[in-house]
Amino acid sequence: MLKLMIVDDEPLERLGLRKIIQRDFHNIDLVEDSRNGLEAIENVRKYRPHIILMDISMPELSGLEAQQEIIKLLPNSKTIILTAHSDFNYAQDAIKNGVFDYLLKPVKPVDLNKAIKKAIAALPSPKNTNNNPDKSDDLDANILNSAIEYIENHYFQEISLNAVAEHVHLNPQYFSRYFKKETGMNFTTYVSKLRIEKAKTFLRQTDKPIYRIAVDLGFSDAAYFTKVFNKFENQTPYQYKMEMKQLV
Question: Can you give the pTM of this predicted structure?
Answer without folding.
Answer: 0.53
